[in-house]
Known about the structure:
The complex is a heterodimer of chains A (about 180) and B (about 220). Chain A is an alpha/beta fold and about 180 residues long. Chain A is about 40% helix and about 20% strand. Chain A has helices at about 10-35, 80-95, 110-120, 135, 165-180, and strands spanning about 50, 50-55, 60, 65-75, 100-105, 125-130, 145-150, 155-160. In chain A, the strands form 2 sheets. Chain A has a 6-stranded mixed sheet. A two-stranded antiparallel ribbon of chain A has the order 1-3. In chain A, strand 7 (about 145-150) and strand 8 form a beta hairpin. The longest helix of chain A is centred in the N-terminal third of the chain and has 27 residues, at about 10-35. Chain B has about 220 residues and is an alpha+beta fold. Chain B contains 7 helices and 8 strands; from the N terminus they run ααααααβββαβββββ. The longest helix of chain B is centred in the middle third of the chain and has 32 residues, at about 75-105. Mean pLDDT of chain B is about 75; it is low at about 1-25 and about 40-60. Chains A and B meet through strand 1 and strand 3 of A and helix 7 of B.
Amino acid sequence: xxxxxxxxxxxxxxxxxxxxxxxxxxxxxxxxxxxxxxxxxxxxxxxxxxxxxxxxxxxxxxxxxxxxxxxxxxxxxxxxxxxxxxxxxxxxxxxxxxxxxxxxxxxxxxxxxxxxxxxxxxxxxxxxxxxxxxxxxxxxxxxxxxxxxxxxxxxxxxxxxxxxxxxxxxxxxxxxxxxx
Amino acid sequence: xxxxxxxxxxxxxxxxxxxxxxxxxxxxxxxxxxxxxxxxxxxxxxxxxxxxxxxxxxxxxxxxxxxxxxxxxxxxxxxxxxxxxxxxxxxxxxxxxxxxxxxxxxxxxxxxxxxxxxxxxxxxxxxxxxxxxxxxxxxxxxxxxxxxxxxxxxxxxxxxxxxxxxxxxxxxxxxxxxxxxxxxxxxxxxxxxxxxxxxxxxxxxxxxxxxxxxxxxxxxxxxx
Lengths: 180, 224
């Protein structure tokens, strides 16, 4: 008994239709994922304590009463460096208004993350999350990703990319949170 | 249970014992309601809403009266503030009571074990993290921030672990990670075999400086 690949025109048509349906379904699911609202908005920010590559160890709950900005980065992410520099500028401006900032590296290799952290030359603590426990709890699905937490410890805004527009939006949201 | 049975039986017997006057009462009430004018019963909900702004606009109110009612120094506002403060105090008291109750339920005194940590001087050791194992099982791995280390150096004592253990012999092992003399990575361990009795057990991890050897010293103290 031999098995032959069907070569009938009906089979081909059927296969093409299935392929088309599968591609459309994949496209829809990806689009839905991209537009999915961030589930932590309005929720209490998950607490964490992490080792620092630059600066001291940090625990989020110690900063209740301050507006906290978390920026998830990786040494392989090119826009992350630009974004960290922009965040550093905003920290310099708003630090006295009660702003705390942490960069959380998601690299698997802590040595590589440390090297990146040293070269980043920022004035806030760059933390290491090689086990990715914190990244998972904050549902990081894109890099760089910035999370803004208000003074009561509630997640208020998330920015999933870095661009001049998103920087403007970040500054606008940050000012609103600092004024609350 | 007996009381409940009685209550149920009384409820079942109640209709049987109803008097003619009791039967007439609902009938009279219905007649009375039918006789009353609709205004006395209350107009439909939409009507007052529509009428209220017009009435408010037509009825002139003295400006001083409104300002007095909304000013922060008015007696009404002060009374409201006092009520809010009282409510806040009640919530804090309730939270405290619930916390105590939770601790008593989760960690009863006969099985309770608490481990505390204190640091004295800390010249030769910069604390980074402490890993605690009881009977070869990791119960906590705590990472210290600069603020926490500072608080410990000022004389603070931290309750590192609170748990339950059955009566008998147990072993506690603590690993201290941090920076030793000359800012080098430093890891040391300390262990203690202890006997858990009927009452609560309190243990203390002490980090001290040994001046003669210019080294830190780690000790586990059993508070009898």
